[in-house]
UniProtKB/TrEMBL annotation, chain A:
Gene3D superfamilies: 2Fe-2S iron-sulphur cluster binding domain, sarcosine oxidase, alpha subunit, N-terminal domain (3.10.20.440). InterPro entries: 2Fe-2S-bd_N (IPR042204), 2Fe-2S_ferredoxin-like_sf (IPR036010). This is (2Fe-2S)-binding protein. Keywords: Oxidoreductase. One of its GO terms (molecular function) is oxidoreductase activity. Pfam families: Fer2_4 (PF13510). It comes from the Bacteria. It comes from Bradyrhizobium centrolobii.
TrEMBL record, chain B:
Residues 378-458 form the SoxA A3 domain. It comes from Bradyrhizobium centrolobii. InterPro entries: BFD-like_2Fe2S-bd_dom_sf (IPR041854), FAD/NAD-bd_sf (IPR036188), FAD/NAD-binding_dom (IPR023753), Metab_Enz_Cyan_OpOx_G3PDH (IPR051691), Opine_Oxase_asu/HCN_bsu (IPR017224), SoxA_A3 (IPR041117). Keywords: Oxidoreductase. Residues 10-318 form the FAD/NAD(P)-binding domain. The lineage of its organism: Bacteria, Pseudomonadati, Pseudomonadota, Alphaproteobacteria, Hyphomicrobiales. Pfam families: Pyr_redox_2, SO_alpha_A3. This is FAD/NAD(P)-binding oxidoreductase. GO terms for molecular function: oxidoreductase activity.
TrEMBL record, chain C:
One of its GO terms (cellular component) is cytoplasm. The keyword Protease does not apply. Residues 6-346 form the FAD dependent oxidoreductase domain. This is FAD-dependent oxidoreductase. It holds the Pfam family DAO. It comes from the Bacteria. One of its GO terms (molecular function) is oxidoreductase activity. Keywords: Oxidoreductase. The keyword Signal does not apply. It comes from Bradyrhizobium centrolobii. Transmembrane segments: none annotated.
Amino acid sequence: MFKRSELDKRPQVEIFVDGVAVAARQGDTVSAALLASGRDVRRSTAVSGAPRLPYCMMGVCFDCLVTIDGVGNRQGCLVPVAEGMQIEIQKGKREIGK
Amino acid sequence: MTMAPKREAYDVVVIGAGPAGLAAAATSAEAGLSTLLLDENIGPGGQVFRAIASTPVTERAQLGADYWMGADLVQALRASSAEVIQRATVWSLDRNLEIGVSIGSASAFARARRVILATGALERPFPIPGWTLPGVMTAGAAQTMLKSSGLVPDGRTVIAGQGPLLWLLAAQILRLGGRIDHILDTTERGNYFAALPHALAFLTSPYFAKGLSMMREVRAKVQVISGVTELAAAGDGQLASVSYVAGGKRETIPADLLLLHQGVVPNVNLAMAAGVEHRWDELQLCWSPVLDASGTSSVAGIAIAGDGAGIGGATAAVVRGRIAARAAVEALAPAAAAKLAPMATLRTDLAKAERGRAFLDTLFRPAKQFRIPAGDTIVCRCEEVTAKDILDAVAIGATGPNQLKAYRRTGMGPCQGRLCGLTVTELMAQARAKSPQEIGYYRLRAPVKPITLAELAAVPKSEDDVKAVVRG
Amino acid sequence: MSGEYDVAVVGGGLLGSAIAWGLGRLGKSVAVLDEGDITKRASRANFALVWVQSKGLGMPAYTVWTVRASEAWSRLASELKQQTGLDVSLQQNGGFHLTLGEDEFGQRTELVKRMHNQAGAADYRMEMLPASEVKKALPLIGPEVSGGSYCPLDGHVNSLRTFRAFHTGFKVFGIDYFPERPVSAITKSGGEFRLTTPKGELRAAKVVLAAGNANQTLAPMVGLYAPMGPTRGQIVVTERTMPFLPHPLTTIRQTDEGTVMIGDSKEDEVDDRTLKHSISAVMADRAQRMFPHLARLNVVRSWAGIRVMPQDGFPIYDQSETHPGAFVACCHSGVTLASNHAFEIARMVAQGALEPELVGAFSASRFGGSGAANNSGY
C-alpha cells in the first residue's frame, strides 16, 4: 500500500510484529512502520470484530489501536518505534491483563 | 526522556505545537512570561509542519516552501525561554485554568494565568459507504506518513474529495515518486458560481498562483474526474474498489488505497470540555468558538488561536497565535508588550493572511450527500452506528446528540465524537428540520483523551474526596 | 398536541417511562412530556444496578418493595425483549460489596447485622464473606480486599438499552412522547388536568409527576408534596475489555458491551457540568486496589450526574386528595424499581388509587406537616 522514499536515509530500527522481525526507521510511528511493513496488520474492532487499519494518523480516530510491549489499546500513530519493540495486532476487545 | 512540567504554575500555557502554538509560545516567552508549550506529537509542527524537525524528505522542493516556513517557527521557539514538552497529552482543562496532562503514562497538573488553545483542526468526517474499510484513509493521514516517514502510496491509489490540501498532497506524492491512479473531484459545480463574488480577493491572494500551478502539475500526470456526485468504497474486509457517479454515469475502479478529504474543521474537544461557548458556522459547516478579536473565549483566561478558532490556514494561524500571545502579555505584563509587534500590525497581517479564505470556503463547501449519509453507512466508527440507526432514534424521540448517545452509544467510544459529531448534528438537523445550532453537540467532559485508571488513581486527593466516595 | 389522554406522565426518564409503558400495556392512552437534549437526566447518568442489599435500613417496607422489584425484573426484561427485540442484558446472579482493609470489613459486618435485626425486613440472604470466599467468585481480587457482603438477589442491567426499549415500546403501545416540553403549570378544571408547556397545553384525566427532582416544584401545583435532596455522583468508564467480572459490585461493574463502570461519589453539589478529578481519583484508586488488573485499562469517559433523591432517601409515591387523579412518584432507584413502576404503580394509576398495603409507607405524609397537603396514608 505504501513504499519508502529512496531519499530516506534514517537508521533502521528492528521491531517485532506478532513475533516476526520487521525493519522500521528511526522516527517512524508504530502505525507508519506497520503500514510500511507490507504485512497484514489489520486489527479487528471491539464492537463487531470488523477489520480496520489506521484512518487519520493524527491521534483522533483510534483506528490504529495496537498492543505495544504488552499494553493493549495504544494509539500506534502517536508512539515512535524503538529497538526491540514488541507489537501485537489486536483482535477484538482488549484483554484485562494486557 | 519524558518529563513533567518543571513548575506548578505558569503565566501562559500553550496547548498544541502547530503554527499557532509555536508562534504563541515564542511570542509569550519573548516578552518574558513563564511559558509552557504542551504537544501530543513526537516533535513540533502540528499537522501542517508535521515532522518539521525530523522529516527524511530533505529535498526542500518536494514538500514546498510553505512547509519549510515551519522550520523558522521552531527555531524561534527553541531560541526562546519557553519550556516545551512533546508527547504530552492534555486530557483536562477547567475554568480555573488547571491543566491535566499525561506524559509518559503519568499525569501532572499545571496552573496557568492564561491558556492559549492551539489544538488546530482535524479532517472533516467523510462518511461514505465503506469508509471504515482497511485501505480507506484520510488524505491528511497519507500526508503525515509522507512528511514524517517518507512513505508514499504504491498500490492502485484513488484520491477523492476536494480542497487545497488534496492538490497539495497529490503534488507531494508525485514528487516523491508515489502512485496516484485517479483523482475524483467532488467539488459541486454550483459552488463555482457561488464563489464568484469572492473571486477578486482570491485572485489577489497568495493561494491563487500556488494553487493553480499545483493543479497544473498534478493534472499533467493523473487522470482527474470532476463533478463527482456519489462515492462509495467496497471490498471484503479490505478495500477492493471505488465506485463513483460523475455526469450521471456510474463507474467502478479497482483500488488498494482510497484517500479522502473534504476540508478540515476545528478540533473542539478540549475547548468544549473546558466550557468554551461554540456556535455553528453556516459557511464552514462546523462548530467554531465564540471569540473576540484577540481570540479570547467565553471562559475567562482561555484564548483560542489557529484553526481551532475557525479554519483560516497556516499563515493566519501563525498571526492568530501572535495576537493571542500579545493579548496575554498586555494583560499580565503590559510593559513587556512594547517588545512585541504592535497589535495594529498583527491585525493587518491577519487580514492579509485571511484574504481569499471566503472564496475557498464557498468553493470547497462540501456537498450535502458527502456530509449527511443514509442507510447502512456508518456514522460513528467507534461504536459502529449507522445513519439508519440514528434516524430510528430520532423516530422514537431523540432530539439531540446527547439523547442519541443514551439510545445508541454514538460518540461514547474512544474518539469521543471527533469522527461522528458533525455528521450526527447535521443528520439530526436534517431529520428534525432544525438548524445544527438548535440540535447542538455532544456535551464533552474530561478526560478528552483516554488515560489509564492507574494514572487517574494517582491524582492527589483529600480527606473530603475520600469521604465523598467511601460510605457505609 | 391537542386532544385528551387518560394519563399525562410528566417526565420521560426511566421512572416516568416505566410508568407510561406500564399504562400503555394496560391499554390506556398516555402522553409523556419530557425535557430536551440537555437537562439533568439521571436516566443517562446512572450506574445500572438492580440492587437489593443494604436497601431499606430504617424503612422495612422499602426492603420488601425492592425485593419485589428484583423478582419482577426478569418478567419486565422478557416483555421488553418480546415487544421491541431489545435485550436489556439483565443479569441477576448475585452481587458484592467489597471492603478494603479490616475497618471497612468491620463496618460492613455491622451494617449487615443491623439489616438482619430490622423487624419486617424481607430475608434476602445478605451475608458477609471473607476474602477467601469472595475470591472463589471473583478470582481477580487484589490482596487488599478484606472480604465483602454478598446478596444472591443482586444484579445489573443495561440501563440505557432499557431506556431505549421503553421509548421503542411507546410506539408499539401508541403512547405519545413529547420531548422539549417542560411543564410549567398544572391546573385542574372540568374534571381534567391542563398542563402548560412552551409548545401548548395538554389535557388529561390523570397526571403522574415523574420529573425527578423537579417534582418538588410540580407537586404543590396539584396538592402534593415531594421534598427532594439531590446529590451529585461521578462515574468513570473504561474502554471495552474481554469479560473478567462475573458479578456486579456496588462500585464496579462490567457492562454487556465490555466497558467497566466505576462509581460513585456522593457530593453536596448540583452542577453536573463540572467534574472533580480528585474524587474520580479516589474511585479509580479503590477500583484498582480491588482488581489490580484494572490499573492499565484506559478511562475513556467520566461524568457527573445529579441523583433524584427524596429527602430521606426513600421513594415517594403519593396521590392527591385535593386534586383526585394526580399522582407523584420519585425515587433514587429508577433502575432497580423499574419493574414495580411498570407493573404495580402503572396498575394503581390506571385503577385511580394507590394501594396502601403495597406502597402506603411511601406517602409523603411521613415527612410530617411541613407542607404535606394530605395525610391519608391512603
